Amino acid sequence: xxxxxxxxxxxxxxxxxxxxxxxxxxxxxxxxxxxxxxxxxxxxxxxxxxxxxxxxxxxxxxxxxxxxxxxxxxxxxxxxxxxxxxxxxxxxxxxxxxxxxxxxxxxxxxxxxxxxxxxxxxxxxxxxxxxxxxxxxxxxxxxxxxxxxxxxxxxxxxxxxxxxxxxxxxxxxxxxxxxxxxxxxxxxxxxxxxxxxxxxxxxxxxxxxxxxxxxxxxxxxxxxxxxxxxxxxxxxxxxxxxxxxxxxxxxxxxx
Length: 255
Known about the structure:
Elements: H1 9-24, E1 27-29, E2 35-37, H2 40-43, H3 64-70, H4 78-96, H5 101-114, E3 118-126, E4 135-144, E5 154-159, H6 173-181, E6 186-188, H7 190-210, H8 221-229, E7 232-234, H9 239-254
Antiparallel strand pairs: 1-2, 3-4, 3-7, 4-5, 5-6
Helix pairs in contact: 3-6, 3-7, 4-5, 6-7, 7-8
């Protein structure tokens, strides 16, 4: 005896889905007059559009050199900050008059002396070494009065074009950010300058290495330190200026 079996639910659902898809498929007229089914994928391929996520500006990662420089750029004492303000004021005035670099240093030193500071132009010179060539560098120094009766004068270094000394070719974003942190005019003692030069020189080496460039000898830490920490000659004030300062000091003491 043969039993009539009803189709299972899965088979019925598959058949209904196939019929629905076939009825919705586009038709085209055949050359023989019949109709043929055209695949939808052949006409309009399915493309999945993804919406890009908007992000904010990407900032360079702060390296250890960046953090070291960030803690060394500010003046250490109130006297250094006041001296920095005086130097920037005289520097802006002399640059507006069109003075050149070496003349600019002498003019700023004369203006600082007229304001009562013991300032002078210093020229450091160093010989040739296996790691870097010989050279010389001009900057200012100011001898501040002793903080106490038994103390000695404080020698403060002043460089009016400090930031440009660390420029390199094809800098990375991280090094450009560090370069902007360096002061354009440096005023401070030699111990802070030594640490600042070391941090900036290490960052310059890392930037050049990432770009695949060779570190030039004039950007090595030894060469950069030699600019300000080598033996130097301190120019004395002109005789007429020294005589005027002496007369001014005697007049102040008599008053």
